[in-house]
Every structure is written in C-alpha cells, then in structure tokens.
Specification:
alpha+beta, D-Maltodextrin-Binding Protein, domain 2, Dipeptide-binding Protein, domain 3, seven-stranded mixed β-sheet, four-stranded mixed β-sheet, 16 helices, globular
C-alpha cells in the first residue's frame, strides 16, 4: 500500500515532535529536577519492545541490551571475545577443569534502595551469586536461562569474597557461559520484596540505574555515580548521564527519526533503507558521510534454512534433494544484491568465521550438479520435489530469492510468511518442513553452534530444531566436552561441523556482520562479534 508523501511527512513530524516532548518531560523530571544536558543522553529505539528487565529473562537482544546497562556478572567479554574480570577480580580453575574459584572485588555496590539498611546501599558478596544462580533453576521462576546451570554440580559461598562452582564434568566453555546476562547478580532483599514486579523495577550494580519505564512508550536509565569500573586514565565510568529508549514498532519511522538526529544510532540493516544508506559494495552513501558514521565487523551469527528431518515428505528425507538445495543457489550473489555485501557467503559450514572449529567443507554454487541430483530424484520417485519454506516478513526477500533459484534446478518451493512469534513456536514444535532461522552465539565457543545437532537437545526441550541424530556426531560431541585441551577440542569441532554438512540438516546462507549507523557526535561506541550494546564507554561531543 502506498502512502502519499504529504501524509508520510505529517506522520514523521508528529512522531518527531512526540519523541522530543517525551524526552524533555522524562529527563526534565529526573532526580533533583536537574535539567540533563542532551549531549549526555544516549537515545535509541527498540522496535521489538522489551518484555523484562530481570536478568533471569535476558533471552533476546531487546532485553539483553538494557539489562547489560543495569547489571554485572562475574566475568565479561571484551571486544575481541576474550573473557575478562567484571565483579570477579580473578579466578582459578582446577587441573581437572571441574572446580572454579572466583575472588570478588570489594568495591561493588548495588544501586541504592530503601530496602538496604546501610545508607540505602549494600556491597555485593558471594552469597548474592548463590541466590542469583538459584533463581535460574527455580521452576517457579521458569527462567529460559536455566540451561546455563546444566553442567553445574553445586556452588557455594566459601566466604563473602570467594565463590566456588563445581561442575559435573569438564566443560571448557563454562567461563563463556558466565558472561551471559542470565548470570548477573541481583539483591535478594529487593527480589523477595517485589516478586514479579522486579521485572519492571530492577536493582543491579551496572553503570546505569533504572529510573522510569512506561511500557510501550519509553525507558529511562540514569548514570550510576558509584560505578566501580574506570577507564584507562582512571576516570569513573560511565560518561553519559542518561540512556533514553523509545518503543516505536515501525522500522521506517525509526530510520526517519535517526536521519532527523532524534536517535543516536540504529542497529542492523533493514531492507527498507539499506539502499538509502549503503552503496552496492557496502560503503556509506556519500550523501550521509558528513553526518553519519558506519561501524561494522564480524558477527557470530549464522543465517540458515533449517530442515525438519522427521517430516514425512520424501523430498525432506532425500539427501540428494538436500544437497541440491545446498549447492543450487549463488550465496555470493545473494549477499551482494540483497545485503549490499554486508556479511559473507556461508560456504564452509554452520560454525561462522571467527570461531575455531569451522569445517573446510565447501558448499560451492554448482547448478549443473544440483539439476542432476533433482533429475535422479524424479526418476526414482516419479514426482517433482515440492517443499514449503516458512519465514517471517523480515527475510521474505531472501526466501523469494531461494524460491526463484531452486525452481531453476527443478525444485518447487512454496514460501509462507508467519509472524515471528508464531514461526518460533512452529519451528520448536516440528510443524514446518523448511524454516528460515538465525543462530547468534550465546557465548564464544563453537560448542554453542554444535549443540543444535546433539540428539539429546531435541526441540521443544532443546535447540535441535531439525531433529538431526547421528551417533558419530554424538560421540564426538561428548568427547569434545570431556577434554580440556583446546587443540583436541577444536579438531573434534571441525569433524562435527563436517558431519553436519555431509548430512545437511541445515542450509547455511551467510555469516552475518555487525553493522551500526551512529551520529557523527557519538564517540566511544565499539562493536563486538555478539552485537552486545555496551554504553559505559560512550560519550557525545
């Protein structure tokens, strides 16, 4: 449906005016009624909305981003995915890889609360982590992060400054798991007092504290003046006075607000504005180079087509057809024309570039071989292979591209569009033949990707949405988890990735790329391969 230019401009003006007034009202009413310098306010939009500010529900980026500003955990990731201290100043791991001792800083305090008796603040101690971890496995909480504790035998506070975690078996990726915001520390006094209301009234230790949340309208965070981390020069972080988050569901409206200077950044690349901002080669358009900066880099995200292997459709069961799909379309052309060369063709396996363990098996474009495989199938089955590919609206262009290309090799593809939430549910319950999906790394270890193919992780109770089952793969997976030697583990990862691509339960499309557009006056924003939003180092000139 086309909207007249006049109506569209009116809509933009109204939205812009509303946002401006809202920010003035919100920030002007903040603590001590002190006017906040707009140069010290970072503004962004979350079109997907936020469902909870409780770390136990830090399931998706829209929740994780604000939670990361409010809370801290034992350890964190730097921009190169190295695990570095956060609340834990140091740690020790036993020689058998099963016992972890964390030594806590003594200068970390929860944000002020009237529930704390000591001048409305309280120091973080080891028992706070015991309480926080207990919440993850509490069935009454029903945290989607409960799986983080699957490898843990027990944990205990040795004393106020020492936390011990004992694993059931060696699990080299465990430190990476602890960087997830599921594992952030929360104060028991506040959680017990508020119950479910903690989701909208969080108290953490992070660089920003919670100020105000009007659901579906705005969220405001303010600077934590007692934050414990400092920059390289010894200055207290954060630099910003406030973070203001809007909830406008329309991506095009978000884009227009950014162009008007009313938002400080937009994340990712949407089809509606990619050609406006980027050249076909992925560079910033000259018209915006004087007022917009482009940040991009590797992203641990594999975009793929999943195949539900328990579907009775003979085309699903045929390895020939799955192979024909895998080599029957040009990934390089797809990334060039549909993604403006943002990302790279997924030719080497499911594990993305940047993580040790990716196989060297190539899925090169070979339409002649693909047509031959389809013809062999037709001769054997006496029927044309017909499949249904389900996606949400955000990836319709890619799925329609696949539809056109696979028709050329003799495969009939029907594309169906579902709302994102419905697609997620249908994928989990095995109701789809083919489905478009993403897998973004939860932690920086290839095991995170390979867990999608472990037979004990069948959905809906695990991430194995394809119901792939292979004894050789399972054996290698168990062996990899049991070794603490990196070189041996990485070699087994490569073998597992190769096995996946030999059996083709998934069709990797491309390895994604972090891409952010920021206003020219924004400084200190860094990107990282898991696309975590970190604002403690950001400032505006």
């Amino acid at each position: 449906m086309q909207i007249s230019t006049k109506k569209l401009m009116l809509k933009k003006v109204i939205i812009g005016f509303t946002i401006t007034i809202t920010l003035i009202q919100v920030l002007g009413s903040c603590k001590n009624s002190t006017a906040v310098d707009q140069k010290k306010v970072f503004r962004y939009n979350e079109y997907r909305n936020i469902t909870s500010l409780d770390p136990a529900f830090a399931r998706n980026p829209q929740n994780i981003w604000p939670i990361n500003q409010i809370f801290n955990g034992l350890v964190q990731l730097d921009t190169k995915l190295q695990i570095i201290p956060e609340i834990a100043s140091s740690w020790e791991i036993s020689s058998d890889g099963k016992t972890y001792l964390f030594y806590l800083r003594d200068d970390v305090y929860f944000h002020p609360s009237p529930l704390f008796t000591d001048d409305k603040k309280r120091k973080v101690i080891a028992s706070d982590f015991v309480y926080s971890f207990n919440r993850l496995t509490d069935p009454n909480i029903a945290s989607p992060g409960s799986w983080v504790m699957q490898q843990v035998e027990y944990y205990e506070a040795v004393n106020d400054s020492t936390l011990k975690i004992q694993l059931k078996n060696p699990f080299p990726a465990f430190l990476g798991l602890l960087t997830m915001r599921y594992c952030a520390v929360v104060p028991h006094e506040v959680v017990e007092h508020l119950g479910n209301r903690f989701r909208s009234n969080p108290i953490g230790t992070g660089p920003f504290y919670f100020k105000r949340w009007e659901e579906n309208i705005k969220l405001v965070l303010r600077k934590n003046p007692s934050y414990f981390e400092k920059d390289a020069q010894g200055n207290t972080l954060p630099y910003l006075e406030a973070v203001a988050i809007q909830f406008i569901p329309d991506i095009q409206s978000e884009f227009m607000l950014f162009l008007q200077g009313k938002l400080d950044f937009i994340n990712s690349l949407d089809a509606s504005y990619k050609d406006e901002l980027l050249t076909p080669k992925g560079a910033l358009q000259p018209a915006y180079q004087d007022r917009v900066s482009l940040l991009n880099g590797p992203y641990l995200n594999t975009e793929y087509i999943g195949i539900y292997l328990e579907n009775p459709n003979p085309a699903i069961q045929s390895l020939k057809i799955r192979e024909a799909i895998n080599i029957g379309f040009d990934r390089k052309l797809m990334v060039a024309f549909l993604r403006n060369n943002i990302g790279s063709p997924a030719k080497n396996g499911f594990i993305p570039k940047g993580l040790p363990g990716s196989s060297e098996k190539n899925s090169n474009y070979n339409p002649e071989r693909a047509r031959q495989l389809v013809m062999e199938y037709i001769q054997e089955r006496k029927e044309t292979p017909k499949l249904t590919l389900t996606t949400d609206a955000n990836y319709l262009d890619i799925c329609e591209y696949l539809q056109r290309e696979l028709q050329k090799i003799g495969i009939e593809i029907k594309v169906e569009v579902m709302p994102t939430a419905s697609l997620r549910q249908a994928k989990s319950s095995g109701k789809l033949e083919l489905f478009r999906a993403s897998w973004i790394a939860d932690y920086p270890d290839a095991e995170n990707y390979l867990s999608l193919f472990y037979s004990k992780n069948f959905s809906p109770n695990g991430p194995n949405y394809t119901h792939f089952k292979n004894e050789a793969f399972d054996t290698l997976y168990d062996l990899a988890l049991g070794t603490t030697q990196d070189s041996i583990r990485v070699e087994k990862y490569k073998q597992m990735d190769a096995l996946v691509m030999k059996n083709i339960p998934v069709i990797p499309l491309y390895y994604d790329e972090v891409i952010r557009f920021i206003q020219k006056d924004v400084r200190g924003m860094e990107i990282n391969p898991i696309n975590l939003l970190v604002l403690k180092n950001v400032f505006k000139e």
